[in-house]
Amino acid sequence: MTDIWLNETLYPDWGQRFRVKRELAHVQTSFQDIVVFESFSHGRVMVLDGCIQITERDEFIYQEMIAHVPLLAHGDASRVLIIGAGDGGVLRRVLHHRNVERAVMVEIDGEVVRLAKEFLPGIAAGAWDDARAEVIIGDGIEYVRNAVDASFDVIIVDSTDPIGVGEVLFSDEFYRNCARILSPKGLVVNQCGVPFMQADELSETSARRSRFFPHVSAYVAPVPTYVGGLMTLGIAAKEPAALARSVAEIRALAEQQDVLDTCGYWTPDIHVGSFNLPPYIARYLVG
Ligand code: SAM
Predict the structure, then answer these.
(1) Quick one: average pLDDT of 189-211?
(2) Which of 12, 183, 187, 205 has the fewest CB atoms within 10 Å, i.e. the most exposed one?
(3) Residues lining ligand 1, CB < 6 A?
(4) How confident is the model at residue 286, as a pLDDT?
């Protein structure tokens, strides 16, 4: 039998490929093309419009860094808004935090959630049924437009790249509303791509956010299947303290929240160290 390979089409001249054990689902929705398959190397994998979104084998690195870093940077977040993240992995990590009373997740494509529940149940690991979770199928820009002032402490944007449905999540209007609906110590985090291949994403996003937030930075994580080196996560805060916590402070907060020692990648040292950006990335940060 000939081998079947899935070739990622994120970059025109370079990319990764996966040997496919079996295809589990292939659905074209009004938003995007969704494929879920079993691989020989990375467990089950979800692909949107030809771009790898998540694999069972390395999802923990990205999910722990996009969830734990902003919540611990804030220090006592109880109301969290998650935009995108239809696989449920961010929701799961957010709900690990003892202080969280309400986690609202707004995902535009209901099919992503349905397929994640059916074929990738280990990623959310039951977070869908948590009484603190509210899952809304809708457009993130619409949600932040209509949300009440100062109604969230942390906003986590785990979206696709700034093309197609995800583009609006990288706009001035989106960040203006994020600043409006965040409480005085509030902060927003979003995926800013892999600068080695997608430098514009980080530079444009940080320029936009610095119009609405006084403190803008970024941190990094090595996600094996987000090819091209370090993945960046952009962070914009209303208070400087969120970006200046020591390892000891982060450790104490993580202990309080019951997340210390629950992770495969995140630690207090990794948290603080991830803000030390190499020059080829730091130069894309504005201000
Ligand atoms: N971690 C992955 C990455 O960095 O590429 C993203 C994973 S997650 C599956 C991305 C989700 O964002 C998708 O399910 C997509 O449907 C959702 N999304 C894209 N645009 C959106 C929008 N405007 N509002 C809400 N969700 C959106």
Answers:
(1) 95
(2) 12
(3) 31, 48, 53-54, 62, 83-87, 106-109, 112, 139-141, 158-160, 165-166, 168-169, 191
(4) 67
